[in-house]
Design goal:
This protein is α/β, with parallel strands linked by helices. Helices cover 31% and strands 22% of the residues.
């Protein structure tokens, strides 16, 4: 009977030692993996794809990545934010680890679609004069004397050069412009800004951005755009621009003999009318 008890004690003792041995083995394996990741998976090379405006060196510098950085410990969200903050033309990007020592950054860049012109400040009216005051939300809301390039979604990219070929936009005053941020306007001009972004999106969707050279938002409830370098097109503020642009493209061949004129898409009784100059 004593022999039986001794055998049970030995089995329990072996079980405890076996469990401790397994824990020590797992801890040693984890330490080995951590040491291996620290020693062997260090950054040696950064590759960049999809870039055209920025060089690979500019993107690498903006990322904050340095040779010797550990690939396991890289914070992708932080790298993404730092690149987009430093380089306004970056629309989105992805960061891929290529083991054992390479990081691949794939970028997509914004295109400068439109150029928002500064709103001129009117001359002060003579004392006692009866000149009409500017519309609320008009010139007085402008906070910049510079033209700014924007993306199709209204992201401010950079101040525009004098010879830029992007679509000229009139009738908006940008508030506190800063590259890489969304364009902001006064509350009174928010309807104009929404109409502009909807129209730019529809033009891009229809592949017609190259046909438009100017968009005028100064009227209270209408949008005017200069189309094909010879026609003015009047649109309602906040209309179904995708449908209206398709309708415009469909009827355009009927007016090829006219050098200029105005297409009106604001009337409820007729979808589209044309008045030659």
């Amino acid at each position: 009977m004593a022999s039986s008890r001794n055998r049970r004690r030995r089995r329990r003792s072996r079980g405890r030692f076996s469990f401790l041995f397994k824990l020590l083995t797992l801890a040693a394996a984890a330490a080995a993996l951590t040491l291996g990741a620290t020693v062997f998976f260090q950054l040696e090379r950064v590759e960049v794809e999809g870039n055209s405006r920025y060089t690979a060196q500019e993107i690498e510098a903006a990322s904050g990545l340095r040779p010797g950085d550990n690939l396991f410990r890289l914070n992708k969200n932080q790298i993404n934010a730092e690149i987009r903050q430093a380089l306004p033309y970056i629309e989105n990007l992805s960061i891929v680890r290529r083991w054992p020592s390479t990081i691949l950054i794939v970028v997509k860049e914004w295109e400068a679609v439109a150029r928002v012109e500064p709103m001129s400040v009117p001359e002060p009216a003579p004392e006692g004069g009866g000149e009409e005051q500017p519309e609320e939300g008009g010139a007085r809301d402008s906070r910049t004397a510079e033209s700014w390039l924007i993306s199709v979604k209204g992201r401010l990219l950079e101040p525009a050069g004098e010879n830029d070929s992007a679509i000229r936009v009139l009738g908006l005053g940008i508030l506190s412009p800063r590259a890489g941020t969304a364009m902001a306007v006064s509350q009174e001009q928010q309807g104009r800004l929404n109409a502009l972004l909807q129209l730019l999106a529809a033009l891009e969707e229809q592949g017609q951005t190259g046909l438009v050279s100017e968009i005028d938002l100064t009227a209270a409830s209408q949008v005017r755009m200069f189309y094909d370098n010879r026609f003015w097109v009047r649109l309602p503020q906040g209309g179904d621009y995708a449908y209206q642009l398709r309708a415009l493209a469909a009827v355009m061949p009927d007016w090829v003999d006219y050098d200029s004129g105005t297409f009106d898409l604001t009337r409820e009784d007729f979808p589209i009318t044309f008045s030659p100059d």
